[in-house]
């Protein structure tokens, strides 16, 4: 980890807006970054989830199976009325700028990176040679990544009634406004590009639909208009209640509504890795650090798939 004095020579990157701030380099040292927690006030309309479980992994498996069944009525059975949630959540965040004084001095746009399910912000800066943050920095872009609510080092509130897709959209919108205003890291950005992976792409699409002026462009990865094979992949992950996973003891404190990939590596490979075209060491690293999904997010994800008719920027 680099000192504040070392980082300050690369421009105006500061700890503004962050608590427990730390300065560090990206995995390949192409960017300098500041990490920390941001308090994010959110007011959002959520859904009352009519589901008390899962009490155990048998019940969770049946819950997931209900989604994969032909003509499933799972959503109708579990989705209730709407309600408003108003709260402030602590979100772990990472702002990075190029580790090149000339490139850093010309910054005007930033990429807003939203990770997918069972990962966290580290997805974007995973290892030297496998870092989106490094690649973006080499092209002169700043990046902002964060742990979605309910993942990583961010808050983990009620996984059914609070951690839902619509709230994630409104939370991201507040973060984007903070970034544009210079309230995070002390740098103002005129333009924000929304970049998502998988579930993060769905959330990014949802932001563009509800808040079309937030982004000047979108890049949606691990995401498609077609859904063929989606239910098979969802089931093949063999997800289990996170607090029951023997190899992830740090998740033991979470309530039962948080779940993650099952405890054998095939649960990760089936959905995301095509053998033999991947680095097995990095595969193992990702499996050993896998994160959580929330049942509320799963049940409300479909609400994001509405045409973003007011968004007219590049995709």
TrEMBL record:
Signal peptide: none
Top-level taxon of the source organism: Eukaryota
Coiled-coil stretches: none
Domain AB hydrolase-1: 113-252
InterPro entries reported for this sequence: AB_hydrolase_1, AB_hydrolase_fold
Name of the molecule in the record: AB hydrolase-1 domain-containing protein
């Amino acid at each position: 980890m680099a000192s504040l004095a070392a980082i300050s020579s690369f421009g105006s990157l500061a700890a503004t807006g962050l608590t427990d701030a730390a300065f560090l380099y990206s995995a390949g040292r192409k960017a300098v970054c500041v990490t920390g927690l941001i308090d994010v006030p959110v007011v959002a309309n959520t859904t009352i989830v009519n589901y008390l479980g899962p009490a155990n992994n048998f019940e969770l498996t049946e819950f997931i199976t209900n989604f994969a069944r032909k003509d499933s009525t799972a959503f109708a059975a579990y989705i209730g009325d709407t309600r408003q949630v108003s709260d402030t959540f602590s979100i772990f965040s990472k702002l990075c700028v190029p580790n090149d004084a000339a490139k850093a001095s010309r910054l005007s746009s930033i990429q807003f990176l939203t990770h997918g399910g069972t990962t966290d912000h580290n997805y974007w800066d995973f290892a030297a040679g496998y870092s989106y943050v490094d690649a973006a920095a080499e092209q002169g872009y700043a990046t902002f990544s964060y742990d979605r609510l309910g993942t990583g080092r961010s808050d983990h509130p009620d996984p059914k009634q609070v951690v839902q897709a619509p709230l994630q959209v409104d939370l991201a919108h507040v973060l984007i406004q903070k970034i544009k205003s210079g309230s995070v890291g002390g740098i103002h950005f005129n333009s924000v590009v929304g970049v998502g992976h998988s579930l993060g792409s769905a959330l990014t699409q949802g932001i563009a639909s509800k808040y079309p002026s937030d982004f000047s462009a979108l890049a949606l990865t691990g995401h498609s208009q077609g859904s063929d094979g989606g239910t098979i992949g969802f089931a093949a992950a063999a997800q289990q209640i996170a607090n029951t996973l023997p190899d992830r003891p740090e998740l033991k404190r979470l309530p039962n509504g948080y779940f993650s990939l099952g405890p054998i590596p095939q649960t990760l490979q089936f959905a995301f890795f095509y053998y033999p075209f991947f680095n097995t060491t990095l595969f193992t690293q990702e499996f050993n650090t896998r994160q959580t999904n929330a049942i509320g997010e799963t049940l409300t994800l479909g609400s994001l798939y509405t045409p973003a008719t007011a968004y007219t920027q590049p995709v």
